[in-house]
Every structure is written in C-alpha cells, then in structure tokens.
Amino acid sequence: MKPRDPHRSLKSSLCFSAIIAILLSSFALLYSTTLLLPPSPSSSSPLSNAACDLFSGQWIIFPRPALYDASCPFHRNAWNCYRNDRDGMASINAFSWLPNGCGGSPLPPIDPAAFLSSMRGRRIGFVGDSLNENFLVAFLCALHSADPGARKWKRKGAWRGGYFPTFDVTVAYHRAVLLARYRWQPVENSSASFHEDGLKGIYRVDVDVPADDWVNVTNFYDVLVFNTGHWWGSDKFPKETPLVFFKDGKPIVPALGIVDGLKVVLKSMISYIEKEVPKRTLKYWRSQSPRHFHGGEWDHNGSCLFTKPLSAGELDSWFDPGNKGVNKEAREVNFLIKEAIDGRDIQLLNLTHMSEFRADAHPAIWLGKKDAVAIWGQDCMHWCLPGVPDTWVDILATKIIHDFGAG
C-alpha cells in the first residue's frame, strides 16, 4: 500500500474548509437579505387563515404587554389615564381581543421594532376627528417604545405626528372633523335667506371641497386612515348655528338636513380620495367609535363609571338604533359609511363591534383638569391610553403588513 500523500490530505482539508466557509457565507447573506425584505403573509399572521375575522370576537382576561406608560411624549393630557390617576387601569388593560376564526389565540400585539423595520421609509397618515387622533396617539406611543429618539412632527399641514429616525418612518394626523371644508359665517355675512329669528350665523360646508388640512397630502402617504361622523350631530351644530351645505359655491336647494348632508359629503370625499390618492396607497376607513353614556347625554349627567366590559347580550340594548338610546349614533353612521365605500378602493376598518363591549375603558371623570367634568361632562367617547385603541393599533398593523405583502 502506498503511503498517504500529506500534501494531498492538506489540499483536501483546505478544499473542504473552503466549501464550508462559502456555504456559511451564503447562508449569512441569505439570512441578512431576508431580514431586509418587506414582510409577506405568513403562517404567523392571523390573516394567513382565510376564516380569520379580526373584527368579530370577544374580550378575554389576558393582560396585554405594556409598551408605554404616562411618560410617552406623544400623550394628549385628557387621555393619559395613568398620569390622571384613573381608577381601574390594571383592569382596563387586563383584557385582550380574541378574534373569531383566527386560531383560538388572542390577537398578537404589535411588535413595534418589526413593524417599523417593515415600514422603513414609509409614511402613515390619519385624517379625521379626535377619535382618529386618539387612535394616532396610541400608535405613536407604541412605536416610540422601539425608537426612543422619535420626535414630534408637524409639517405638511399635520395637526400632530411623529418621526422615527432609526427607521425613517413618519406617522401623522390631519384634523378634518367633517372631511369637507367648513367655515363660520356670521348672519351679517350670510345670504338673506339665512336671516331667521335666533340664528347667530351658519357653518358653511362646501361638500365638493376637501378641508385645507388634508387636501394637499394625498401623494405624501403610503397608508391613509380616514374617519368622520362624530361631529355630525345637533350637539355640535344646534339650530342657532347650523350646518348649511354648498356645492359649486352655491347653497344646495332645497336645504339638506344634517344626515343627508353627511351622505353627500361622504360620496364627494370618497370620490375625491379615489381620484387623487394613488392606487398604490393603502386606504382604510375606520368605522365609528361607540360612546358609552349611561343615564343621559354628555351634557345631561351621562356617565360611564363602569368596572367591567358589557356582555354580548347587552350590546343591542345600548347601540341598536331601534332602541333610540343616546349611544345609537355609531351604528347609524356606520350604515351610511358602509353604503358609501361599497365597491370602492377603500377598506373598512370595522372597529365598532369590538369597542362596543368596553364601557369600562373611557377617561370618564379622570380628565386631568379640576373643572373639566363640571364644564364638559364625563368623557365617555374618547378612550384611556393605554387601553382599547392599542388593540386598534394591533389590528391596523396586522392589516398593513398583510396588505403590503399581498400587494
């Protein structure tokens, strides 16, 4: 037998080592490249299950992880329930949403770092009233936990917002409570036809003109979340200072009531969105956030001092318009919204049902100012933060990641 060639053995060993090194380098490159790719639907996403319905389900005792506290720099004072020493905050955040058909587990909370990484270089905008601002604040505070260097952002006409420099992500809110442009006109500056006894003036609504706050940002955002509806009531616009609707610069004749005015504005604004917002932009319309006034309206001793969620059997008695209760408006407006966006390139973010249960989760009397309740009544419309809007954030983040991956 010939003796083994030591040089040949060395060459074989070196060759084998080189192959292993190449394989390891290739794996490392593939792994690092995969981390930089945009997310796509996967088995870990609830929406990978076709039967999953994020918007129906039940609340179960399953405490949420705390992503932020009273120190979040994006808080709005009246909703900062930890700072305002609201009773029962531990109970409010002891519940998690269990959606139907999504694998039998609670909805996974947002992973702020993973979400921001997946959204690198993108912009998310909220347009609407203070309930969308409530939503935005929860979003900003959750994301801030992954980028402490985040700073406030108010350019492009934004009412408020945040910029996350580590990921180059912008999230902002444009206040446009009616979506359409509206402005105050005193009686002396109004048409003679509006000179009625007791009339102080009118709020002119141009149904075919978007509010200045968001008209020029339609190309700026990669995701837009719209809402309106909470201002469309006689409490905001009583008969002495009513809404009067204009089109093409002229009053609509015969004059529209507030509900018919809302229908016309919805149709007009949705047409504008479809025309002016790029097709690539993800567009969502958030359904109504339900109120929980008990025993009267906000200005007639309405209260929401509850310590636990409502049961499923109680919801219709609170919210069914057929019962003519003080909280019926959410379902009434939702009917108009669903009708208006049907067949359009706008997805309904139907957060109403899941929120109807949570009579326990409003700021109520803990508003941070001594005389606030005496002046404004209890706040049974907006939500404590942390609280229910954090679950809205979980749902929106899940939808955004899924929809960008699917698209």
UniProtKB/TrEMBL annotation:
Keyword set, alphabetical order: Golgi apparatus, Membrane, Signal-anchor, Transmembrane, Transmembrane helix
Ranges for domain Trichome birefringence-like N-terminal: 51-102
Membrane topology label: Single-pass type II membrane protein
Name listed for the protein in its UniProt record: Protein trichome birefringence-like 12
A single GO cellular-component term on record: Golgi membrane
Domain Trichome birefringence-like C-terminal: 107-398
One GO MF term: xylan O-acetyltransferase activity
Lineage, opening ranks: Eukaryota, Viridiplantae, Streptophyta, Embryophyta, Tracheophyta
Domain of life per record: Eukaryota
Pfam family, one: PMR5N
Transmembrane segments: none
Family of the protein in this entry: Belongs to the PC-esterase family. TBL subfamily.
Name of the gene this protein is made from: LOC120265312
UniProt keyword annotation of Membrane present: yes
Localization terms from the record: Golgi apparatus membrane
Source organism per UniProt: Dioscorea cayennensis subsp. rotundata (White Guinea yam)
